Amino acid sequence: MSRVFLVVMDSVGIGGARDADRFFNQDRPDTGANTVAHIVQACAEGRANEGRDGPVRLPTLESLGIGAAVRASSEDVLPGFDAHVTGFWAVAHEASMGKDTPSGHWELAGLPVPWDWHYFPDARPAFDKPLVDQITEIGGVDGILGNCHAPGTQIIQELGALHMQTGFPICYTSADSVFQVAAHEDTFGLSRLYAFCETIAPMLHEMKVGRVIARPFKGDAKVGFTRTTNRKDYAITPPEPILTNWVQDAGRHVYAIGKIGDIFSMQGIDEVHKGDDKALMTHLNRLAEEAVDGSLTFANFVEFDSLYGHRRDISGYARALEWFDGEIAKLLPKMREGDLLILTADHGNDPSWSGTDHTRECVPVLCYGVGQGSAGHIAFADVAATVAHHLNIPSQGPGRSFL
Ligand SMILES: O=P(O)(O)O[C@H]1O[C@H](CO)[C@@H](O)[C@H]1O
Ligand SMILES: [Mn+2]
Ligand SMILES: [Mn+2]
Asked: Where does this protein hold Mn(2+) 1 (predicted)?
């Protein structure tokens, strides 16, 4: 029986979104943002040589069609990237009005977001007094710090020492529908941070805030503050069955790698494997060998986005792509007859762009195991329908299989 491996390269967008002018980074519309193309261009021009050198080389993604997809989605030039394409590729357009992780993943899983998320204003305070009063009361703290839009790595440097003195959690947000809580793992305590987030999450979900995110960190004023890998997301539960439910309801097994379990609030998921991207790749390789017939393995590789996209680090993003490309080259021979591997993304995060937020972009859909060809332009939800079709189970979403 066929298996499917659906792998999200978080934020690896390819430009070309028709509604990019409705999304912004620091008042600049996202029109023209193109994560992959701008990385390729910067590398070719020698502008991304930190820890690497020269033009970016992605031979495996190229042969699966990433260059062809970028050319089909945008006018951007792509120096090099003219290798023979042996995979099956498409350009996917998002319908949901959010350029965030849950919107992208839910729609890839067959559920365009049926509501408007709540976003906090980029003002001080970002959270109004009645909300702060509720949060401090039910969360059992005497106050909060932050209360603004901020990059997470920066705000812990600014407020880490004061947080240690006062015991007030650092609460901040971004252009996404998120309520983030940074707290020191030792002085505030990791389990206390998780409990705090878990307690306030239902109230924020009620307001249609997509995620409450625990952001633990360590360090002190002298050495500086560093986030740990113990981030935890408390996301709204999808209001309808999604791909993982369809697969599970058909009696099949669903493996989640990385933050997929968090994004879908564990709906339809049998087992979760976590770690940094390197560890996730080990899990993916092991599951390529061990996943049972008829199963779905759904993975998210977040470091493109969290370590490089938001930090506007072009060299780092290029290094991550080159590493990923080499790993996928080693994964392909592990695919069995009848298996389908899909590499895709959830939104863009152009590291050459203004601001530090995601960019509205189309995403590549690169398929291995179904021969060579292209479906041209498709919808995000078509990915779920295609996975269902390949697993020979009913699709319950609005998408159509492109295979
Ligand atoms: O700056 P940090 O804390 O990494 O926040 C980023 O991570 C959040 C969730 O992925 C996004 O909303 C973005 O703002
Ligand atoms: Mn994402
Ligand atoms: Mn992000």
From this structure: 10, 346-347
pLDDT digits (tens, 9 = 90+) for 328-385: 999 999 999 999 999 999 999 999 999 999 999 999 999 999 999 999 999 999 999 9
pTM of the entire predicted model: 0.93
> Of 137, 96, 113, 61, which is closest to residue 347 (Cα–Cα)?
96
What value does the mean pLDDT take over residues 151-158? 96
pLDDT above 90 (res 229):
no
Pocket test for ligand 1, best of 176, 177, 233 (most atoms within 8 A of CB): 176
Whose C-alpha lies nearest to ligand 1, atom 7? 306
Find, among 261, 315, 233, the residue nearest to 54 by Cα.
Answer: 315
pLDDT at 219: 98
CB 311 near ligand 1, within 6 Å: no
302 lines ligand 1 (CB under 6 A): no
Closest-lying ligand 1 atom to the alpha carbon of residue 213: 9
Binding-site residue positions for Mn(2+): 10, 305, 310, 346-347, 358
Task: Give yes or no for residue 355 CB within 6 A of ligand 1.
Answer: no
Rounded to the nearest 5 degrees, what angle is found at the Cα of 60, between the Cα atoms of 55 and 63? Answer: 100
Structure tokens at 289: 């060998």
Q: Which residues are annotated as a binding site?
A: 10, 305, 310, 346-347, 358
Determine whether the shortest distance from the Cβ of 383 to ligand 1 is under 6 A: no
Distance CA 156, CA 223 (A): 12
Q: Tens digit of pLDDT for each residue in 45-103?
A: 999 999 999 999 999 999 999 999 999 999 999 998 888 999 999 999 999 999 999 99
Q: Which one-letter amino acid corresponds to residue 398? A: P
Closest atom of ligand 1 to 233 CA is 9
